[in-house]
């Protein structure tokens, strides 16, 4: 059995709802299906030996068909999430109401040229770097000078829709949930 975390794009609180997400994943034959928060984080296990892109496609097709959500599915093994959390890539920085620590996960790794990122894509965002092991861009969003949706719109213009962003708090909650399970 392999454990995964599906990071879903296009999920908003209450839509389609965690019950429907769990039902969709269980209907695909996945086990130990759990949702975390209401922002599209689904933890599950599977005995399938299908490669990740095949699993992502199956999940996305089911979500589109059963919920109308066509936003995108990015999988990370729970081991990858655990290793990311243990690396503590933000060091001593802390997440709070005024300063969000964010990770933007890419479906495919960035090529070396794309990793040359501007230090400040927007005045309220400081890019810390690209974590190749987790295929994620790390940034700090100063909520007192701008808003996270502006940064997310910039990310989509630059990288397309095959991305999804989570806060560091969400990643640590996924990791903590894994430690309990």
TrEMBL record:
<dbReference type="Pfam" id="PF08002">
    <property type="entry name" value="DUF1697"/>
</dbReference>
<dbReference type="InterPro" id="IPR012545">
    <property type="entry name" value="DUF1697"/>
</dbReference>
<protein>
    <submittedName>
        <fullName>DUF1697 domain-containing protein</fullName>
    </submittedName>
</protein>
